[in-house]
Amino acid sequence: MIDSIHERIQAVRSKLPDSVRLIAVTKTVSSEVIRSAYDAGIRDFGENRIQEAINKQVDLQDLTDITWHFIGHLQSNKAKKAIQHFPWIHSVDNLKLAKRLNGLAAELGVSPLVCLQVKILPDPTKSGWHIPQLMEDLPALNQCKNLQIQGLMTIPPRGLNDTEIIDVFNRTKELAAEIQSQKWSHIQMEQLSMGMSGDYHLAIQAGATMIRLGTILFGERRP
Ligand SMILES: *Cc1c(COP(=O)(O)O)cnc(C)c1O
Fold first, then answer.
1. Which of 60, 94, 141, 181 is deepest in the core (most CB within 10 A)?
2. Ligand 1 center–CA 219 separation, angstroms
3. For the domain bounded by 2-218, which CATH number is listed?
């Protein structure tokens, strides 16, 4: 089991450009298995449930150079715990949440790194900004000075073919470039968090800087 995780991590990493940050998505994965991924060299871990993640962070507190990434839908009542336990939040998906995180960050004296989650195509199963709403919200986001907005995150809808998936990733990159060109004082657009086990090779072609991989490293999750 542990050998195979080392091998899987090696196999994925050997194909990655240096510019791409590999985030190992460890939802449902045990602390022991996370530790073996750490031993194989992984330092970035992604979780989508706050309490599950906090339990693992306690188990793994001796591994002081891990960076934890929150990648799941964030309910506003969990926002405080999220910024207390995650230096990165990839899934900031509406202005109200951004403002709440900004206020909490000020109170706590921290400056979380965040991505804005966008929906390039309609998708009732996912949260995220539609493009026109995001453009409208940029001035208010630029006022969220305790957040370090780093870029965009996206998840393509299920059931697309490769060409359609690439198109979603390319449009995300173009959107980031457009926002970057507006030269907001507190919005950076250098990071593109896109690509999961089934489509990360397409995301990398489109310029992903962070890929979030679970299944391909740890096997199928039990529901
Ligand atoms: C679960 C999850 C992943 C990893 O998905 P895999 O297909 O297992 O690689 C990536 N991003 C988010 C937001 C997730 O919830």
1. 141
2. 12
3. 3.20.20.10
